[in-house]
Amino acid sequence: MTLAGLRPGRSSYKLAASRYRLPPIEKPGEMTVGFQDFCSKMVLHVDISEKSIINSLRLEEELGLQGKCVTSRKTEWVTGHGLTIGDSPSRVVQVYGEPTSRSPSTKNGQPLELLYYAFDWAGPEVPQVMEVVCTVPKDGTPGRVVEITLAAGSL
């Protein structure tokens, strides 16, 4: 279970920092650092433990991002099973099976659906939780994945 090539609970912040040119940590402690890819309009949020290990990763599309593109990292913004922002909710279920739970959600007034997956049955060697946030189908427009979170512990 990976997201953007990183594995919560196992990957170090040092690996994420070298891969995505994140700032160095001056003092270890729990914190969140973000990386913005202006070309693909993606933001990767990295939550770090006191031991500089990644606790969780959250990938989301930020529609307001604008900038000059040199090269896009869009091919990196996937889970280990190939799920990415923009995929349909049915693709999520096709790849990961039925979620542990589904619930309505909102962000900036937009109705969304949260698909929650608990992987505690797989043991401590894999991330334990994945949340996938999708838009709700409306006026003939299909739903799509807008955010993916993968965490070593519960959210």
User: Roughly how much helix do the residues carry, as a percent range?
Assistant: 10-25%
Which regions contain 5 or more consecutive residues with pLDDT less than 50? none
**Radius of gyration, rounded?**
16 Å
What is the domain tally?
1
Shape: globular
Structure description:
Helices cover 10% and strands 34% of the residues. It has 155 residues and is mainly beta. It has one domain. Strands 1-2-3-7-6-5-4 form a seven-stranded antiparallel β-sheet, covered by helices on one side. The longest helix is centred in the N-terminal third of the chain and has 8 residues.
Question: Tags for this entry?
Answer:
155 residues, mainly beta, 7-stranded antiparallel sheet, 2 helices, 34% strand, globular
Give a quick rundown of the structure.
With 155 residues, the chain is mainly β.
